[in-house]
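Incident review: delayed structure delivery

Summary: a single-chain prediction request sat in the queue longer than the usual turnaround. Root cause was a stuck worker, restarted by the on-call engineer. No data loss occurred. The affected request and its eventual output are reproduced below so the record is complete for anyone auditing the incident later.

Affected input:
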Amino acid sequence: MKVLIIDGQGGGLGKLLVEELKNEAGIEITAVGTNSSAAAAMHKAGASQTATGENSVIVGCRKADVIVGAVGIAVADSLLGEITPAMAAAVGQSNAKKILIPANKCDIIIAGCEPKTVTAYVQDAAAKVRSLLSGS
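Output delivered after worker restart:
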């Protein structure tokens, strides 16, 4: 299963996601940062492949089975403007399953979503990836 992790800013969320999933059998992780700092953090965490920038997000979304990241990766101009309209469209139009983590820092408030720590959200997202891997 090809998992694409997309993150921006410092790459902290993406780093946690890579660390949580990198030892999972049957998963190939590609991590794309909207900037070089985010890509470097995910590379250091152990992603199979890393890349940076808008075109890498677009291409990665075409090839992924699952896309994981903060909810802002699907909203143009979020993550302090790091998500371009083309990136958001690529995520939204991808045939991949999308596992989006609530992050109110993107000025996106998700009603009905219970507040959790970032670590708890990452663990929940990883469990959903594992569930897709096992076909559950």
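Verification: The first strand starts at residue 2 and ends at 7.
Action items: add queue-age alerting; document worker restart procedure.
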